[in-house]
Amino acid sequence: MIMDLKIKEFFILILLLLCLYGCNAEKNDNSGFILEEFVFDNHQLDSIVNSVAVLYLNSLSKNNLSDDNGKVLILELSGCPNNLLFSFVCLEKYDAIYKYIFRENKRIVGYNKTTLTEVVLLSDIDDLTDLGEYFSDIMHPTGNIKEFQYLKFPKDLYSKGSQGWANFDLVFDPRFIVYRYDGKSFSAPISTTNVIWSLDHEGFD
Length: 205
What we know:
Blueprint: H1 2-30, E1 33-40, H2 43-55, H3 57-60, E2 71-80, E3 83-92, H4 93-101, E4 107-113, E5 118-123, H5 128-135, E6 139-148, E7 176-181, E8 190-192, H6 195-200
Parallel strand pairs: 2-5
Antiparallel strand pairs: 1-6, 2-3, 3-7, 4-5, 7-8
């Protein structure tokens, strides 16, 4: 009887451990990226970001950090000294993750909190030293962090399961609102689907 009781207790312990493991695995599977908050020291840039957030207010009004549905406002940082580009785009979260951030190999920098929403900050600048050198005069990290549960590495970025490789010929041309910064002031915005083209184009006022 004592032996049977110990065996039952052993199996109960095993079941509890399995349940705890399953709960932790599910929790880890649902966890998203931890991003650091940035604030803008340049008042003109801070005003621009808030104005763009107002522009997309209707699209972002139902947005939250834990929901995979809805849209996200993105600000991409690119360019070089005295020719910096600030490119805004509002995307469905699925499109942002599967069709843009990871397909285009963007650096996830952090986020900025406006009065209306969180803006995810990306960059196409590979070198962290260059990124800090280019943008340190107009923005800085605060040390505050927040989890973006919907922002996680896609499990099927490279394949379609048993069907083999994913479709790499996907055409995805979102429209950006782009501001150029020359080290002193910001240009009037332009609307484009090609940010790289904007670097050398004279469409800015």
